[in-house]
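ESCALATION

Customer reports they have been waiting on this structure for their group meeting. Please prioritize. Original submission:
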Amino acid sequence: MNVDTSCFADEVVVDFPSVAPAVERMRRSFLAEERVAALRATILLTAHAARRGAMVPVEVPVPRTCRACGGRGETWTGPCSCCRGSGDELRRHQLQVAVPAGVLDGARFTVTLSSRHNPPTRLELRVLVS
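Update from on-call: job pushed to the front of the queue and completed.
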């Protein structure tokens, strides 16, 4: 049986970007294998605010899925220029942290930040009283 292959000469091969990085991130996230290294921030308080307690705004860079590449780390032409191929981008997130009354200089707090589509991020806060 002879097959005429001339009819397939106009086919175009489309090379889709790899989804392997996104699949790997989802696997690690679902299996709780990925723990982002703790972010660190310092809270500056006056002696008066430390005695009474305070609500302190803290701006935190939280990793999120890159909007430009959808977390793949690449575009049609190569590595994503927005996330430099990592699939993640840092977004600034504003938090209000309640510092308890009587906090001492050098005290440390740990807060875990959770977002819907990303692994938990641990935030370590250190208090400096001036």
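Sent to customer with the following note: The chain has a mean pLDDT of 77.
Escalation resolved.
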